[in-house]
Amino acid sequence: MTVPTGRRERKKAATRRKIADTALRLFLERGYGSVGIRDVAAEADVAVTTLFSHFASKEALVFEQDENFEHRLAQAVTDRAPREPLVRALRREIQAMVRHCASDSAAPVWRMIDESPALRQYEESMRLRHADSLTTAIAADLGLSPATTACRTIARFVIDSHALAREAADPEAAVDEIFRMIEAAWEVAFPSRRARGAVPPGSTGQRPAGP
Amino acid sequence: MTVPTGRRERKKAATRRKIADTALRLFLERGYGSVGIRDVAAEADVAVTTLFSHFASKEALVFEQDENFEHRLAQAVTDRAPREPLVRALRREIQAMVRHCASDSAAPVWRMIDESPALRQYEESMRLRHADSLTTAIAADLGLSPATTACRTIARFVIDSHALAREAADPEAAVDEIFRMIEAAWEVAFPSRRARGAVPPGSTGQRPAGP
DNA sequence: ACCGTAACACTAACGGTTAGTGTTTTGAAA
DNA sequence: TTTCAAAACACTAACCGTTAGTGTTACGGT
Fold first, then answer.
1. Which tens digits make up the pLDDT trace of B10-57?
2. What residues of B are in contact with residue A124 (Cβ under 8 Å)?
3. Closest CA in chain A for residue B200
4. Are residues A128 and A158 in the same domain?
5. What gap in Å lies between CA B202 and CA A185, rounded to an integer?
6. Residues 6 or more apart from B193 whose CB is under 8 A from it?
C-alpha cells in the first residue's frame, strides 16, 4: 500500500475520462434518453461492467465533475480571507458557479439536464450531499457540532440558492437577492457583535464541537 | 363525464388502497429493498401493470399520501385567518406535519425512508413539486408572478424546514428556530410597514404576536 | 338493452444495474 | 528478474423496475 502514482492510475483516469467524454458526446448528439448504457460502453470500447466500476449510475456520467462542486464550496469557507464574513465568501463562490453554468460551454449540458426528469432528480439528490458537506465546513468554522440546526439550515439555503438562481431569468441578480435573505437568516441565527441584537444564539441543539 | 360516484370508483379506490396497504406491510416486514414489485402485486392479487396504473413508481407506494401534504401547504396559505401573517400560517402547518411524522404510527415508515437511498432521493424530488406548488400559492397571495425569485426562495426555505426539522434531535424546536430565520429572510424580501425603521436583527421573530 | 370507456390482466420485452467468474495488467517485494 | 497480490477489465447471465401491446371484463350513462 505505497503511494500509487504510476501508470495504472493514469490508465484508470484515462479510461474514466474516455467513458465520460464519450457519454457526454452521445448524450448531446442523440439526447440523454435515447442513448443506452450499452451504447456508451460500446462507443467507449469498454464493457458495461467496467463502465459501472467507474460511475455509479447513468446519471453520474453527466455530473462527472460534481465532486469538484462539493469541494469548492467547502474550500470557499475554509480558504477565505481572514475575517471575511462566511456568508459573503459563499455568495462569491455561488455567484461564480452560477455564472459558469450559464457559460457557452456548459449551457447545452444544463439544458439537457433541465429536460430530463431523471437528471433533475439526480441533481436534487446531489444537493443533499453538498448540503451535508457544507454543513460540516460551516460547523467546523464556527466551532459547532454539524448537528446544529442553524448550521444545517444555512448550508441548505446556500445550496438552494444555486438551484434557484439557475432557473431565474437573471441568475446573477437572483444570487444577490437570495443572499440578502440568507444574510438576514444568518444574523438571526448567529447575531454578530457588530449587529446589536442581544439575542442568545439558537436555543436548540447548540453544542461546542468536540476535539 | 358526470359526477362519477359509483361502484366503479369505489372499486378503484379499494384496489388502490389494497395495493398501498399490502406494499407498506411487506416493506415494513421484510425491508423496502427486499420486496419486489412482483411480490407486492402477487400479495395484493393484482397484475403488475395494474399496480403501475395506480402508482407511478415503487417509491410512490410509500409516499401514497403525499398529494395531501402538497395540498395542505397551499391551503395553509389560502385558508388562513384574515390578516394572519403568511409565514406564521406556514410555520403552524409545518409544525403540525413534523409532529405527525414523529408520531408512533408514522415513525416506522419514516425510519424505513431514512434507511433507503432510493426513498430519500424520491422524497427530495417530491420537494421540487411541493416547492413549486407552494410558490404558486405564495405568489398568488401576494399578487406577484410565480417566477419572482423571492417567492420561490421563501417557498423553498419553508419546504426545507420540514426536511431539516425531521432530522433534528428536537424537531419542534428546530421548526421554531428555522422559522425565525425564514421570517428574517421574509422581512428582507418583503419589508412590512410595521417592521420599517431601524429594527435590530433578531427582533423579527414569531413572538411579536398580536392579531 | 346497449355502447363507450375505464379498470384490469397477461405476455414480452426494454433498459439500468449487479453477481459471478475469469483474464490481463501493474506495482512492488523477493 | 521473478514472483505475487491487487486492481482493472471483460463476459455472460441474470435481476428488477417499468412499459408496450393486446385483450377482456365490468360498469355507468344513454
1. 888 888 999 999 999 999 999 999 999 999 999 999 999 999 999 999
2. 121, 124-125, 127-128
3. A197
4. yes
5. 9
6. none
- In this predicted model, what pLDDT tens digit does every residue of B87-108 receive, in sequence order? 999 999 999 999 999 898 889 9
The set of cell numbers assigned to B155 is 417557498
| pLDDT value for A198 | 46
Contact A115, A180 (CB under 8 A): no
Residue B38 CA to C23 C1' — how many Å? 37
CB A51 within 8 A of CB A44: yes
Same domain, B99 and B179: yes
Return the pLDDT at B169. 94
Mean pLDDT of B43-72: 91
CA distance A164 to chain B (A): 7
Strand, helix or coil for residue A208: strand
CB neighbours of A158 closer than 8 A, spacing ≥ 6?
A: A73, A87, A90, A94, A134, A182
Looking at the structure, tell me whether residues B40 and B124 fall in a common domain.
no
**Considering the domain boundaries, does residue B109 fall inside one?**
yes
Q: Look up the domain containing B29 and give its range.
A: 7-55
Residues B147 and B172 in one domain: yes
Query: Can you give the distance from the CA of residue A197 to the C1' of nucleotide D12 in angstroms?
Result: 68
How many domains are contained in chain B? 2
Quick: pLDDT tens for A173-185: 999 999 999 999 9
> Domain containing B159 — which CATH number?
1.10.357.10
